[in-house]
Amino acid sequence: MTDYTLYYWPIAFRGQFVRSVLAHVGATWDETDFNAIRALKSKSPAEQPVPHMGPPVLTDHAAALSFSQMPAILHYLGKKHGLMEDDPASEAMTVKIVADANDVLYEITLYNGAQMWTGESWRDFVPRLERWMAMFEETGRRHGMTAEAGYLLGTDKPGIADLATCSLWGTMTEKLPSLRPLLEKAAPAIAGLCDRIAALPEQAELRARSDAEYGELYCAGQIEASLRKVLSA
Amino acid sequence: MTDYTLYYWPIAFRGQFVRSVLAHVGATWDETDFNAIRALKSKSPAEQPVPHMGPPVLTDHAAALSFSQMPAILHYLGKKHGLMEDDPASEAMTVKIVADANDVLYEITLYNGAQMWTGESWRDFVPRLERWMAMFEETGRRHGMTAEAGYLLGTDKPGIADLATCSLWGTMTEKLPSLRPLLEKAAPAIAGLCDRIAALPEQAELRARSDAEYGELYCAGQIEASLRKVLSA
Q1: Segment B88-101, tens digit of pLDDT
Q2: What is the CATH number of the domain that holds B66?
Q3: CA A167, CA A164: separation in Å to the nearest integer?
Q4: Which domain holds residue B142?
Q5: Chain A residues whose beta carbon lies within 8 Å of the beta carbon of residue B79
Q6: Mutation target vs B (from A80, A87, A96; most B CBs, 10 A cutoff)
Q7: Which of A69, A78, B105, B208 pairs as cysteine with B96 (C-beta 3.0–4.6 A)?
Q8: What ipTM was predicted for this assembly?
Q9: Against a cut of 0.90, is the pTM above it?
Q10: Are residues B35 and B94 in the same domain?
Q11: Domain count along chain B
Q12: Are residues B140 and B216 in the same domain?
């Protein structure tokens, strides 16, 4: 039996945050296909393993528990596998960083594709994207992180905050490489952190597998098409 | 010296989630005016007490710590003041419920006013709003909560999940009373929970004070105007 089942679309985006942590702790998991996720999402809350509006959903088979909401799934895995400091302040900072990451995912997809990017709206957004990057950079800086070494919250090993940061900025700049110079300029230490996390054997193996399965897809759909269009302009 | 300073606009909305918890634990806090919040939000991340994109921000004066992101602020207060069960599963469920609440706030304001409601878009949204309500109801039902008694996660006293649920659905249906019948139909036990929480002396006192200060304002701005317009149609 595998340890977990992850329900998420066959793309990186929010799902990669969960996969990255599962890979880091050496857990085994399976995933389902597009139709199974759509069917699960369409059930009434009473019929769902956990009442949810959309994926990701993670089931822990041994514990017979399911969670939705990427931040909650990361929290569960982080607590269970010792990837968060246990004091209220550090834990809340991890929650804050994951919430920031989730907001960036909303914003770069114009809220899951509620609108499409235009040249003008993208130009207006770039300074805000740089500010998000600078916020992560400043958080790392306050905890002594440099481009060469250290983790985001000053711990001595990568935790949820680091893995989520790499899932956000690392994945974004891998899939949309024209954004990498922006990250290097606005957040050089975060760019370094992303590289160090990505080089961990479990993460390198995950990335190779994900690239083989999902190709260059980032968030998918019309919103990805509109994003690639403004980026290539 | 007061225990905390809360930076949030003079409206209920996301800020009420924080005020509700502060009132529940008997903390003292002060708030700043509109201009101070705007000035803080506009500073570079390096100059901010915690790097953030917008309020709420909470400063704990004794600990000399600041947090942004409503879910992170609630997490900090919840851990510090013993308002969350300490096992990974219960804690992650609290994170999930707060993340769901935050998503509902995004959706009912069309992502902080990125678009405006029309009669048509609101009609399309109502079944989704009912589904959000039903998700909360089902969560309570699984933990034995009824319209008459119990808390959302089956604990014996109100925790962060209960306070956040009341801040979401209670505040929304107080400020936009035409939505109360929807809540009573889709989530009768949640409507009961909101009433029980609202009747706690600290919450009743907070509500009286908030009503005196903010009046009937919910999320404010053009988006509130468009929301009230579709609701009165």
Answers
A1: 999 999 999 999 99
A2: 3.40.30.10
A3: 5
A4: 88-232
A5: 88, 91-92
A6: A96
A7: A69
A8: 0.97
A9: yes
A10: no
A11: 2
A12: yes
